[in-house]
Amino acid sequence: MNYRLLIQYDGSRYDGWQKQRTTKNTIQGKIEEVLGRMTGEKIEIKGASRTDAGVHAKGQVANVHLPEGYQNDSILDYLNRYLPEDIGIIEVKEVSPRFHSRLNAGNKTYVYRISTNEIKNIFERKYIYDLNESLDIKMMKRAAEYLLGEHDFQSFCAKRMKKSSIRRLEKIDFKQVQGELQITYQGSGFLYYMVRIITGTLIEVGQYKRTPESIREILWAKERARAGYTVPAKGLCLLKIEF
Predict the structure, then answer these.
(1) 32 neighbors 43 (Cβ within 8 angstroms)
(2) E-strand stretches of the chain
(3) How many angstroms separate the CA atoms of 133 and 69, rounded?
(4) How far apart are CA 95 and CA 115, in angstroms?
(5) Do 115 and 205 share a domain, yes or no?
(6) CATH number for the domain including 195?
(7) Are 243 and 62 contacting, i.e. CB atoms less than 8 angstroms apart?
(8) What positions carry a catalytic annotation?
(9) What is the predicted pLDDT for the residue at 21?
(10) Mean pLDDT (whole number) for 185-189
(11) What does the pLDDT read at residue 236?
C-alpha cells in the first residue's frame, strides 16, 4: 500500500532532509527508522523536496509503500508517538500505487524570514535571520521582477550543475510584519541554496550595495561569484507543495 505523508519539522538540529551515508541525523532517516520498527521491515520514504541542513518545513510531502494491514490513523499515531518532538506528521493518506511525491510534485512555496528590527528577536532566533537593519523594499521588489519567469539560475546555485539549471519562478512576494520582512518564493523547483542566494542578493539591493538592474547581468553571467551572499538556513521554511 502507498501512503502520502504531510510532514512538518524544525530543521535546526538536523543535517537536512535526505538520508546520508555520513550521518544518521536526517529527517528522512528518523522517519524511516520509526516506520521500520513499526513494520519490522526496511522502509524507504521518498520526499518531494530535499531541504538542506537547518531548513524548516510546514508542508513537506513524502510517500511510502508499507505492507497491508495498516490504517491511516494507526500510522499517524505511531509516527507521532515515537518520532522526536521536532518532527511531526500532520496527515497520513492512502494514495494510488503510482503516486510519487517527487515526480508528481508541482510548484513549491518557500518563505524566508528576515528581522529588520534593531533589537534581537530572541524567542524566534532559530527561525529568523537577525539582519537587524532596515531595507529598501521598493528596490528589492524591482530587482525581484528580473527573476520571475524561466531563467538559467546557475549564478544562484552553490554548486555547478551536471543537469539543467533552468528553473521557473512564478512569484516573489514581500510582506512586512512588525519589524520583520518575509519573502515568499513560488516556483517549479529550486537549485542547491538557490532561495538563500537569491535572498542574499536581494538584501544587498535593499542595502544599496547593488542595483536592481544588476540582476540581469548576474543571470547572464551564469557564475556564482557574481551573485550575493548566502543567507543562513534558519530563516528558510518550506510552506507547501502542490500536486
Answers:
(1) yes
(2) 2-9, 45-47, 56-65, 87-95, 108-115, 129-130, 149-152, 166-176, 180-187, 236-241
(3) 55
(4) 40
(5) yes
(6) 3.30.70.660
(7) no
(8) 52
(9) 86
(10) 95
(11) 98
Asked if residue 5 lies in contact with residue 94, where contact means CB atoms within 8 angstroms, the answer is no
Residues 88 and 145 in one domain: no
- Mean pLDDT confidence for 122-144: 95
**Cell (9 digits) for 153:** 539560475
Assess whether pLDDT exceeds 80 at residue 218. yes
Is the model's pLDDT at 119 over the cut of 90? no
Verify that 116 and 83 share a domain, yes or no. no
Alpha-carbon dihedral 36, 41, 47, 51, rounded to 10 degrees: 40
Total length of the chain:
243
∠44-196-122 over CA atoms, to 5°?
95
C-alpha pair distances (Å), 205 with each of 135, 163, 172, 185, 196: 8, 29, 15, 17, 14
Helix, strand or coil, per DSSP, at residue 84: coil
pTM: 0.94
Residue range 179-194: mean pLDDT, rounded: 96
